[in-house]
Amino acid sequence: MSPPPPAPRPQQQAAAQPPWQQQPQPPAHPPRQPRQQPQEQAQAHPAAQPPHQAEPRAQAPAQPQPQAQAAVRPQAQDQGQPHAAAQPPRQAEPQPPLAGAPASPASGVRLDRSAEPDEYPLQAPDPRVTADAAAPDGGAAVCVACRAGRVDSDGYCENCGHAQPRERDHMEQESGPIAAVSDRGLRHHRNEDAFAVGHTALPDGSPAAVAIVCDGVSSATRPDDASLAASRAASESLLAALPRGTHPQQAMHEAIVAAAKAVESLAGEPATAREHAPHQNAPACTIVGAVVTPGLLVVGWVGDSRVYWVPVDRSTPPARLTEDDSWAAQMVAAGLMTEAEAYADERAHAITGWLGADAYELEPHTASFKPDRPGVVVVCSDGLWNYAETAEEMAEAVPRDAAVRPLHSARVLVGHALDGGGHDNVTVAVLPFPAPPQGAGSP
After folding, report:
1. Cβ distance 287 to 307 under 8 Å?
2. Per-residue pLDDT for 111 more than 80?
3. Which of the two residues, 269 and 418, has the higher pLDDT score?
4. Digit-coded pLDDT (tens) for 202-244
């Protein structure tokens, strides 16, 4: 049964607006048909569903989940990389009989037992020796488990069959005063999130920090490539525009447009055509970003990734600075459901805005703020905010020393999501916001 069409959405505005917010400038747009995110991501509101216990990572692909009714496209199943073919057991080589031992005249098999032990414990290679040993075949990777076997092109050890960690399974990066961490999570077979962080200087010499987080749409083709292309294009655009004197809010708008073009270009590549027709299931992702300067905070987004403001003084309220492009957000904005009811629905995470060749008309949302106190800006995918949805919950999860230890804080936040169940890829960037210059006012 098809869901009713989404209700018209009122003029976009930042949620839980603090008193110091400037007027956001997102354009109005007509109702959209949602694009279904994978069921692993469509988690109920934390208040309506108890958190799961953390589970160890499994090498086997996750089991597919039932489809949400709001899906526009059939849900793509997790497609783990095939394991290396199992090696047939080797035939035991015949051993010469011991002198003086009886044997069966018909089969030649010895009937006695030698004095050797029944079991031979398998000794693991000494890592101090094998870690420094030359890789086989002139540079091929060595298995991280047995430290002896060669890793084949599918990422599995030919000796023990152990799946090797992928480069994007867990990523960490620092750039100046900001840091970001991304993790595959406990249920997905690959990490379809991507991030980019960087810092530069404005024409007057003042510093500017940039963070971009992109979340691949798993029901689309090549979601991991889409998020990576978008994050790189947006970051490069921002780091080039800001030193030229482009206003940060305009620079953010241009960065999202550049990211959209980068994702759209993937639809025409042969790798996409090998999986699906380019425009029937084109690569797609969401995007969210933040630019921090000494007196200004700018955010921009398309999709359901978010930005939160957490002040250093926890006696003052935190705030969510973005509004999701999702079915749930449309229901709340139209007054048809409460937030708890909307996010408890199985259609909650069906997105109504994304980057990709099959997306509706691109409508980047941007907003600027002038905080009157120091704090941290948390830029994250829904793999984190599913476990800390409200601004208050996010502030409780953020360490109190986040402004001076951003990398540690990003690790803590990823751990918070994994402890809650890790049902999705998790990506978060933490940007400290400095206090404004002495005597500067705020509108």
Report:
1. no
2. no
3. 418
4. 999 999 999 999 999 998 999 999 999 999 999 999 999 999 9
Give bridge partners of residue 210 from the DSSP assignment: 198, 291
Contact of 194 with 383, CB cutoff 8 Å: no
pLDDT confidence band for 22 (50 / 70 / 90)? low
Closest CA to 298 of 370, 386, 222: 370
Residue 243 DSSP code: G
Strand ranges for 155-242 from DSSP E: 170-175, 178-183, 193-201, 207-216
Threshold 0.90, pTM exceeds: no
Instruction: Please spell the DSSP secondary structure of 52-97, one letter per residue.
Output: PPP----SSPPPP-PPPTT-SSPPPPP-PPPPPPPPPPPPPPP-PP
CA angle 356, 194, 263 (to 5 degrees): 20
- The phi-psi region of residue 228 (left if phi > 0; otherwise alpha if psi is between -120 and 50; otherwise beta) is alpha
Tokens describing residue 78: 């997790």
For 335, the token pair is: 């007054």
- Coil, strand or helix: which one is 423? coil
Here the tokens at position 298 are 């700018």
Cα–Cα distance, 215 to 354 (Å, whole number): 10
Strand ranges (E), 272-353: 284-292, 297-302, 306-311, 319-320
